């Protein structure tokens, strides 16, 4: 599956521009995490770090969200069905998408799956931080400002902090460094995100 095919599928399945932007944000974060973790884990085979595959997992992780909003137990499974019908998506890619939803896949078996699990929630937190800035721009968001909001449980309460903290437990990336990687990735596509 190509990025172009994945983008087309995502925009067909999701009507909400905000959910589309969320997919783009997680795509960008996954791309950066792939590069970062490849350098940090030279002992792992290179095929573990297919940057395009990681990015597509991020792009499509919530593609069926609107279609299953009333029954989240089916979240990611509709995307899986569509990918299987289209062909061209590897089992690894499908498992990567399913890995961010604990209700469907309870174990994360590789760095890509662990990354999408943590990146999903962090992208939402960073977006929320940008939206409370006077200019509502990612360019004015700093790692420190995200870290301060991280500790405020009432702020962006839907961004599950425990899931974000999987960066430390499952990826061995300190939280502050994880925030830095994700923020840089999102700032790199700020025009696409309208932030």
Question: Using only CA atoms, what is the Rg?
Answer: 16 Å
Biggest sheet features: none
The strand count comes to 0
CATH second-level architecture: Orthogonal Bundle
- Uncertain runs are none
Query: Based on helices, strands and strand pairing, what is the structural class?
Result: mainly alpha
- Overall shape: globular
CA distance, first residue to last residue: 29 Å
CATH class: Mainly Alpha
The count of helical stretches stands at 11
| Mean pLDDT, all residues | 96
| CATH fold description | Hypothetical protein af1432
Q: Name the beta content range.
A: under 5%
Estimate the helix proportion, in percent: 55-70%
Provide the number of structural domains: 1
Secondary-structure element string: HHHHHHHHHHH
Explained architecture:
The mean pLDDT is 96. By secondary structure, the chain is an all-alpha fold. Helix content is 61%, strand content 0%. The two termini are 29 Å apart. The protein has one domain (3-193): Orthogonal Bundle (Hypothetical protein af1432), CATH 1.10.3210.
What does this entry show, briefly?
This protein has 195 residues and is an all-alpha fold. Helices cover 61% and strands 0% of the residues.
Spell out the key features of this protein:
single chain, 195 residues, mainly alpha, Hypothetical protein af1432, 11 helices, 0% strand
Strands, helices and their partners?
Blueprint: H1 3-13, H2 17-40, H3 51-60, H4 77-86, H5 91-98, H6 111-131, H7 143-150, H8 161-164, H9 166-171, H10 175-187, H11 190-193
Helix pairs in contact: 1-3, 2-3, 2-6, 2-10, 3-5, 6-10, 7-10
Protein name: Metal dependent phosphohydrolase
Domain HD: 21-123
GO molecular function: hydrolase activity
């Amino acid at each position: 599956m190509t990025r172009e095919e994945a983008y087309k599928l995502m925009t067909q399945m999701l009507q909400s521009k905000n959910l589309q932007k969320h997919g783009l944000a997680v795509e960008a974060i996954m791309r950066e995490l792939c590069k970062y973790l490849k350098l940090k884990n030279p002992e792992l085979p290179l095929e573990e770090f297919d940057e395009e595959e990681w990015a597509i997992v991020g792009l499509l992780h919530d593609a069926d969200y609107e279609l299953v909003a009333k029954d989240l137990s089916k979240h990611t499974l509709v995307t899986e069905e569509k990918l299987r019908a289209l062909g061209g998506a590897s089992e690894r890619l499908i498992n990567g998408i399913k890995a961010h939803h604990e209700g469907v896949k309870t174990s994360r078996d590789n760095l890509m799956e662990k990354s999408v699990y943590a990146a999903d929630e962090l992208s939402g937190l960073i977006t929320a931080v940008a939206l409370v800035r006077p200019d509502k721009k990612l360019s004015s968001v700093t790692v420190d400002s995200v870290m301060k909001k991280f500790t405020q449980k009432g702020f962006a309460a839907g961004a599950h902090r425990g899931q974000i903290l999987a960066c430390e437990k499952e990826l061995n990336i300190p939280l502050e460094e994880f925030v830095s990687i994700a923020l840089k990735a999102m700032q790199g596509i700020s025009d696409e995100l309208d932030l």
